[in-house]
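Budget justification note: compute hours in this period were largely spent on complex prediction jobs such as the one shown. Inputs:
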Amino acid sequence: MNDMTPTAAERAEKLEGIGCKRKRVEDVRFTQGKGNYVDDIKLPGMLYGEFNRSPYAHARVTKIDTAKAAAVPGVVAVITAETLKTVNLAWMPTLAGDVQMVLADGYVLFQNQEVAFVIAESREAAADGADLVEVEYEQLPVNVDPLKAMAPDAPVIREDLKGKTEGAHGKRKHANHIFSWQAGDKAAADAAFAKADVTIREMISYPRVHPCPLETCQCVASFDKIKGELTLYGTFQAPHVIRTVGSLISKIPEHKIHVIAPDIGGGFGNKVGAYPGYICSIVASIVTGVPVKWTESRIDNLSTTAFARDFHMDMELAATRDGKLLGLRCYTIADHGAFDACANATKWPAGLFSIISGSYDIPAAYCLVDGVYTNKAPGGVAYRCSFRVTEAAYCIERAIDIMAQKLGMDPADLRMKNLIRREQFPYTSAFGWQYDSGDYQTALKKAMESVDYKRLREEQRQKREAFKRGETRELMGIGVAFFTEIVGAGPSRACDILGIAMFDSAEIRIHPTGSGICRLGTKSQGQGHETTYAQIIATELGIAADSITVEEGNTDTAPYGLGTYGSRSTPVSGAATAMACRKIKAKAQMIAAYMLEVHDDDLEWDVDRFKVRGNPERFKTMTELAWAAYHQVPPGMEPGLEAINYYDPPNFTYPFGAYICVVDIDVDTGTTKVRRFYALDDCGTRINPMIIEGQIHGGLTEAFGIAMGQEIHYDADGNVTTASFLDYFLPTAVETPHWETDWTTTPSPHHPIGAKGVGESPNVGGVPCFSNAVNDAFAFLGSTHIQMPHDHWRVWTAAEKLGLHG
Amino acid sequence: MAKSQVAMKINGKTVEALVEPRTLLIHFLRDQLNITGPHIGCETSHCGACTVDLDGKSVKSCTVFAVQANGSDIVTIEGIANPDGTLHALQEGFRQMHGLQCGFCTPGMITRAYRLLQENNNPTEAEIRYGISGNLCRCTGYQNIVKAIQYAAAKLNGVPFQEAAE
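Corresponding output:
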């Protein structure tokens, strides 16, 4: 070897593999306005669809007259439930085992529910037509309060379920009851509470919020009558699921449905499910014979497709006097609105909510969740969250603070005392989850040292004294949150969607010249998959990331997969990618052995090549082996160099983190200033630290919005009062705090590259951290729990209730 | 509906067309002219995804009728790159500083920053944050967008870019 030969380290660096802050492939087109989003698609002869929607939250529909709408110049057709009934599509199944009206069939159950679909030659004509659909309503009593849904005199929401005592998940105990779901051991939990020195109980509500990606839901349906084939372009986080569900409900054979998800402008769980807009566009295209586009407005988005949370948790913790946690009990009312359109794994009506014991070694625990119907928009989606983990993390992290307050302990100390210890992993929780790996104490210790936690508490003590003396009107709050996520759904023994196991897939083809393409069943909505999957391949196969094309979102070319949500892409498809690479590598090794005339076992892998052990001058690079795979394979071996892997994960992965936030609150205005926010995340092996940091920034900003100002609010008549950006708080650059990020690395022992997933962690951990900070500011005055969101009016009200305004 | 004749300069080219009086500028750009860089994220002028540069001002094109833009000079994301075809410092900065994720707000954000840096060629972080507060981003948390704009400002001013310490 001469001095010019690159070292192994130099060769590895050039690959831009795992660990590299590789610049994103996607950005080249996005920064030039050359992304290809659904609304950019324009097909010849394409028509536009627009909904007429209900102004009422609960009403009988006595008459729909479409004559005036149909007479509008440019209007081609008007579809109502009666039209849909001819193709048996007036109702559609939800992923949660419920059914949902596509268009109002005799009655409406929430404001802005879809009543009629007008198809026209322009957006404007469609809107004109929608305005002129004449609907007669007979108003019915409304209930928007989940806590009153099971009262004896509560208005019955779902007349279609009348007399039905069995739901999709067992017995229904009230006309508005959807399911009961429980986990843990009630007797053991009750026994723990009976012997505890100290217990706390608090009603902790997580308000209804909305994922609100900047791009709304939209689709273009194009039905080819000659071929009997449907091409559906749409904002789909799970394109294959849409194809299968579409085939099941439309009866179009699955091989004749082509689902294409182009660039997606953010998803956050909003774009997992199937919505009336998709069904109506498909039917409209079948009826008219030309493509039909549906573009959701922002008001439609916020008021009809996919709310999240609306969980009301009656939480109890039990502990010894010195702060050892003994037990947990939680009873939850889950508001699903008019239809249970939850996007959970089918067997889990309350998702993975039983991760509610959090990061703590709690010997006995029990939880029960009752799902109920109200006159609100349907859903219950996982907004940047792995199926109700966010609600669970919020609940336990608030409860820990409340317990610390009662015990007179520092909340960080109480956490440190009860965190699952490193040597306990793999750790089985009282709910039966097997946490794969963690080093919680190290993470919390690092977080506390990084912010100089002791000094902050001392400063807070002094400020509280000054406040009591009347020298300041400002309160300082310190929020601590330690969260554990459960992501990567999921193992087929636990998870399926409508019977389809939640595996995911990767298909890799290496071309003769040594570059390649990887196709996956997941779908990026901003996560940067085109960049990061290539990095996994670069490290696994020694091919530069720049030489790998990553393709998702076309069900004709991608292997079957369950899509991107619940931080599952890296844990599941990332694993499939690595496993497919290993098949390719095994074949390449045999080719190398043949070419070098040695035994397979005499070869060792060296970054981008196989070399002969003890004779490093003799080697074959991956590029050479790719070429050989197409013309010089050993006798009997199939030519070519490609592989596919369907990965059924053996377990979930459990990312975790320690967050600390400092706020200053003006008690006279209720204004909260975030002085500092520190986030330490452990997502196992870090594929692209730049992208991880970006995800943390974004998720924390969402958490800030949720904790400090968001709520999808309904008045008593069921009017949604927060259906535009005028009323629904989205943080701008001005309000958004500065984020400090940090990390530890504890690889997952069961994942091929040790990665755990990270996208949702900051939302999961961020919300309790902000909320704990605001609550901590008032804790010394005897306040135990102030409900979110902590906007200035509600904070001012809390201060008022505590008598702080004289 | 009777259509009106409009003429305007878009990304350096003169465009003449017939539009309905009620056609919004954003729909005119996207649907009639296939200029799909600017996006639609709301209908209340809050999100800024539709931002274009109109006669030297950042304008939300969902809040302007196409007829109102008659005779104007418009620049969209498609016209931001340098005349020699190389990327504008902002386009480069957004990639270098990871100032985007899903990319949906990016055209509006860059177009807004393009005007901001002409209004103030060396803005502070607070000035940048205020200056882009009419543009919402749901993915990045803005921190890297701020850095991207600082990167571009430094490059346009011919000074080395120094990232602020965390």
